[in-house]
Amino acid sequence: MLQAIQNYWDQRSNTYAQENLIELMSEKKQKYQAIFFKYIPFDFREMRVLDIGCGPGIFSILFAMLGAKVSALDYTPAMLDHAGKNALKYGVEIDFFEGNAQELFFEESSFDIVVSRNLTWNLPDPQKAYMEWYRVLKKGGRMLNFDANWYLQLYDEEQKKSYQEDREKVAKIGIYDHAKNPYAHKMETIAKSLPLSKIRRPQWDYEVLSSLGFEIIAYDKEFYQEIWDEKEKIMFHATPMFLLVAQK
């Protein structure tokens, strides 16, 4: 399963990196950093941050720009290649690692912040990942997880209806539909085997995080309203992103 996921993201890496790099060149940069300031009550210049599933390194770069010491991990070599080039382009120092989000090799209590975006839904064993993230956090450290109910439409009829309505609206106004990318069928096949595709979140996350010892600090289900542009709000209306903030 992990090999299939890695192969998919290797193939998607070029277009995915291009799509996300725009965030560093738009007002999204400041808006995401404002969210970090809102939920992280620490001096960024003294923080050690671990960006798990860093992709092309967008969040890694945003934290590094704020003065944090950043380590970034991804399972896909091609993504790490893009991330390294992006860090060089923006003049920030980041330590990049190839690795599995479910089996971290970092020592216990190594980081003040663990951050992740659009990753947990894509993991074969997300509970194991959360256990590892808890382990590497320092006491009092915080986890910020940005995610959504991606591919819930494969199992939930109500979600399927909303998802199909999104596709119709996107086609009607004539914008590019990310859900129709050339690799969409491959990820749909993978998603059918992933545990979180069939679970409406974040209730599952609440229960698992609490059982591991995390204290839930915030559940922000509206932050995307400030981040996404109007096209994204139409395209992903059925799958709005949420943010979970939890403390060790």
Structural class: alpha/beta
The residue ranges in which pLDDT falls below 50 over 5 or more consecutive positions are none
Largest sheet geometry:
7 strands, mixed
CATH fold annotation: Rossmann fold
Number of helices: 10
Mean pLDDT: 95
Total domain count: 1
CATH architecture: 3-Layer(aba) Sandwich
Major beta sheet, strand line-up? 3-2-1-4-5-7-6
- What is the CATH homology-level superfamily? Vaccinia Virus protein VP39
Assign an overall shape.
globular
Helix content: 40-55%
Straight-line distance between termini: 30 Å
**Total E-strand runs:** 7
Indicate the topology.
Blueprint: H1 2-21, H2 28-39, E1 48-52, H3 58-65, E2 69-74, H4 77-89, E3 94-98, E4 111-117, H5 126-136, E5 137-147, H6 157-173, H7 184-191, H8 203-212, E6 215-220, H9 224-227, H10 230-235, E7 242-247
Parallel strand pairs: 1-2, 1-4, 2-3, 4-5
Antiparallel strand pairs: 5-7, 6-7
Helix pairs in contact: 1-4
Textual characterization of the structure:
The protein is α/β, with parallel strands linked by helices and 248 residues long. It contains 10 helices and 7 strands. Strand 2 (69-74), helix 4 and strand 3 (94-98) form a beta-alpha-beta unit. The mean pLDDT is 95.
